Amino acid sequence: MITSIEQALTLIYKNIQPKNIELTPIENSLNRVIAENIIAKYPLPNFDNSAMDGYGVSIIDVGKEVKIVKTIFAGDSVSDNFNLPKDSAVKIMTGAKIPKGVNSIIPFEDIDKPIENIITLPNSIQPYKHIRKMGEDIEVGETLILKGERLNPYRIGVLASQGVSQINLFKRPKITIFATGKELKMHYENIEPHQIYNTNSPMLVSKSEDLGATISFLKIATDTKEDIKKAIQNSLDSDLIITSGGVSVGEADFTKDSFSDLGMETFFEKVDIKPGKPTTFGKIGETAVLNLPGNPSAGLINFEIFGKAIILTLSGDLKNKLDIIECEIIEDIKIKSGKRTVVLGVFDGSIFRPLKKRSPGMVKPLMDSNGFIILDKTVSKIESGSIVKFIPTQIKWFSNFQKSIITEDF
Fold it and tell me: Do 229 and 289 belong to one domain?
């Protein structure tokens, strides 16, 4: 029975749960998924403070000569008993606490230099100008970070602003990766004319690490049931086993049979997608299993769709669904209809350009592309100028040449 992409993803989300929780210092939390909601205990800022270096004044003294009676630096303690006297001002620095009676800040550059500690205030002073009010950034009780959000440097900064030093995180998924095939050799080995280097495993290891998983990498298992079963049994302490190769219908393709012999419950084993139809997903006990095709482009494309969904769900990540960028395609595409077809290409920020070479057995298109589109089985032609749904794989939003980065009024 063939499974649609949507059905396959539904089966993944239904049968995968996040892992256990561990308490971790925030310094070690980058790219980890938080396992608790963070509610603000403190306002930010936690006192009214100056947004500029300048003079703290009262608007009732507009247009008057006033005397500078005090200088306040950031970090200085300001007594609650101090109240700005009439016809007075304070010198105040950025970040310093606003004393009572001060309700506007005049930047130094907006006023003449003092003569004998006397300055003349302008005729127009705006109330609360250049004053950061307590709680204008964060209010007490505000939900700052949701359970399931992935921590980046800015979320870590928010945690620090609340005095949080340790947080509950979902444990990183533990993943074991191996490939099958007696024709495969590792990149550090010599190959014979009838052999090829294993490109899939290093790519799968790198992609999984980029998603925050911890990886065990097993050497290639030859295409015998005994070797494959041994590799599986050595991997059952993992949260997820990912294999590449051995899932088609060839006489020497024993991967699916080996997993089945060890009690794997299969949720799907054929997906309506080209390339990568024989992708298989199941579980042995609590260990999830993803069997990918051996052809590099086919295997890695299906990892982008199904492997990412599994790893992100195991990680407890709220954002575990594929997202798309709607954009214009710049070239015509003609394909054979009847199957949902993946087309690798490059999105440059405005248009999508399909790659010319994109065979399932190729490696280089995975490097040359930064994503793909999936054409429905009814599609035989997409014309240039049509709107397509682009799925990114390696977009960092940097360019190899300088572009204008300023938005102007056109």
Answer: yes
Q: Are 208 and 215 in contact (CB under 8 A)?
A: yes
User: Is residue 10 domain-shared with residue 69, that is, in the same domain?
Assistant: no
Cα angle: 18, vertex 23, 27; to 5 degrees? 110
Three-state secondary-structure class, residue 225: helix
Instruction: Quote the number of domains for the chain.
Output: 4
Q: Return contacts of 321-327, CB within 8 angstroms, 24+ apart.
A: 321/9, 322/9, 322/391, 323/391, 323/392, 324/389, 324/390, 324/391, 325/389, 325/390, 325/392, 326/387, 326/388, 326/389, 326/390, 327/351, 327/352, 327/387, 327/388, 327/390
pLDDT at 249: 55
Is the pTM here over 0.85, yes or no? Answer: yes
Helix (H) or strand (E) run with residue 55 in it: strand 54-57
Residues of the chain with pLDDT under 70: 185, 220-223, 247-253, 410
In angstroms, rounded to a whole number, what is the distance separating the alpha carbons of residues 373 and 75? Answer: 55
Assess if residue 410 is contained within a domain: no
Write the CATH number for 92.
Answer: 2.170.190.11
pLDDT digits (tens, 9 = 90+) for 119-137: 999 998 999 999 999 999 9
**Cα 137 to Cα 14: distance, rounded to the nearest angstrom:** 39
Domain presence at residue 270: yes
Please check whether residue 337 is in contact with residue 377, taking contact to mean a CB–CB distance below 8 angstroms.
yes
Distances (CA, A) of 388 to 320, 336, 337: 22, 18, 17
The parent domain of residue 35 ranges over: 21-44+137-170
Beta bridge partners of 34: 169
Statement to judge: residues 40 and 165 lie in one domain = yes
Looking up tokens 């699916």 gives 256
Please say which residue of 110, 132, 154 terminates a domain. Answer: 132
Q: What is the pLDDT of residue 335?
A: 92
Q: Are 391 and 342 in contact (CB under 8 A)?
A: no
Same domain (yes/no): 300, 199: yes
Smallest CA-to-CA distance from 120 within 59, 61, 52, 51 is with 61
Closest C-alpha to 388, from 398, 376, 377, 373: 373
How many C-beta neighbours within 10 Å does residue 226 have? 11
